[in-house]
Amino acid sequence: xxxxxxxxxxxxxxxxxxxxxxxxxxxxxxxxxxxxxxxxxxxxxxxxxxxxxxxxxxxxxxxxxxxxxxxxxxxxxxxxxxxxxxxxxxxxxxxxxxxxxxxxxxxxxxxxxxxxxxxxxxxxxxxxxxxxxxxxxxxxxxxxxxxxxxxxxxxxxxxxxxxxxxxxxxxxxxxxxxxxxxxxxxxxxxxxxxxxxxxxxxxxxxxxxxxxxxxxxxxxxxxxxxxxxxxxxxxxxxxxxxxxxxxxxxxxxxxxxxxxxxxxxxxxxxxxxxxxxxxxxxxxxxxxxxxxxxxxxxxxxxxxxxxxxxxxxxxxxxxxxxxxxxxxxxxxxxxxxxxxxxxxxxxxxxxxxxxxxxxxxxxxxxxxxxxxxxxxxxxxxxxxxxxxxxxxxxxxxxxxxxxxxxxxxxxxxxxxxxxxxxxxxxxxxxxxxxxxxxxxxxxxxxxxxxxxxxxxxxxxxxxxxxxxxxxxxxxxxxxxxxxxxxxxxxxxxx
Length: 494
Prior knowledge:
The chain is of the alpha+beta class. The protein contains 16 helices and 23 strands. β1 (4-10) and β2 (14-20) form a beta hairpin. α9 (240-247) crosses α14, α10 (306-316) packs antiparallel against α12 and α12 (369-395) packs across α13 (412-422). The mean pLDDT is 93.
C-alpha cells in the first residue's frame, strides 16, 4: 500500500491538513477557519484552544476524504504563522492569554523604549532583525508584564512560551516543548549564528530562559503523536514562509519565491552565510535540514496582502467571497488612478514605519468599487516590487524569475500585473500549497521518505508563466503614483 506524508498548515485565518504523495501531489486536504479577535485598535488575537480543536478536526477530515488511516502516514510536519505568540500552563495545558498575532501592534511602546539606546537596529547583528512590533520576543515581554502571575510561572518553568509550531507539537506529542530554528529566528531572541537563545537579549527584554522551548532543526523526529495519530512521528517544522521556500525548491543562492497569503512574504536563498541587509530587509534562517549546515535567506515581509481582500469582503461588503475580487477588478480597464496603501498595522519591509496607516488615494467621482478592488490587488504587487528591488541591491543578484504561491497566486489579473510592474517573469508551480509541501518535505526527509533535496528539485514543476507586457514608461508612471500614495500614509498615527 502507498504511504504518504501529512502536513499541518496552521495559518493566520485557518488551519489545514494536507496529505502528499512521493511526487509532491495533494492526496487530501481539509480546512477550517478560526475567529479573528480585535480587542482594541491594532490588537489582533487568536484563541489557541480553538486552533488546536480545528487542527484535530482537519486531520480527521482529510484522512476521511481519502479513506486513509494513521497507518498510511509515515510522518507529519508542521508549518505555521510565524511570530504569533502564546504562553500556556505546563501542567494544565491552558493558555494564560489569547495568542498574540504577528500583525498585532500593542508592543509599539516597547519598541520605542528599546530603540532609545542604539536605535531600531541595535539587535540586527545577532538576530538579523530590526526592533519592531512584528517579532515574538517583545510580545512575550508584554505577556510577562501584563498577564497576572505570568512572570512568576515563567521563571519557575511552569509557563511555556511558544509560537504556534510549539503549541501544536506540544499537543500532538503530549508534552514535547520545542521549536525549530526558523521559528526561533523570528522571535528576536535567537542568535542566528549560534542557533541558540541569546542570553544578552533575554536579559535586555527580561525574559526567563526557563519558559523557552528547545531549538531543533527543521527536519528531525521530534516525537511520536498521541491520540488519533498515535505513533506517527512528528518529524518536521518550519515557519510558513520557510516552508514555502523549501516547497518551491529554492535550494541554491539567488532563487526566490513570493507567497501571497494574509500578508506577502518574499524570500531569497542566500546560502550558508547570513547576508546582512542595509535596505530594510530581514536576515533570517531559511531552513536547517537535520545535521546539515543552516541555509539563510533575505526576506521582505509585507503585512497586508490577502487580508486586504478579506477587508473588502468583511468590512466594506463590496464582494461576497474573496474569490469574487478578480471579476470585480476586471470590470474596469485600469485602476482609474486609484491607489490603496494597506498600512493597517504600519508598513513592514523595506520601510518599517509603525505609524503609517491605510489610505485610498486618487478618488474622484469617476471612481467605483471596481477601481478600489483593482487597487487592492495592485497593492500587493507594488509592495512586492519595493521588496524585490531592495533584495537585488542587498544581494547584488539579479533575479531571473519570481516563483509565486499562496492563495492569491490563482488570481491571473494580479499575476500579470506583478510581472508587468516587476519587469520580470512570474512563475506559478503546479502545486501552490508550497507552505504545507515544504513542511511535508522536511518531515519526509527526516524519516527517509525522500532521500535528499534532489528529490525536492525533481518534483518542482511550473504550471503557468507570466511575462511582462507593460512598456517601461507606463511602469514608471504607476510606480511614481504609488510612491505619492505611500507618502500620504506615513506618520499618520501620532
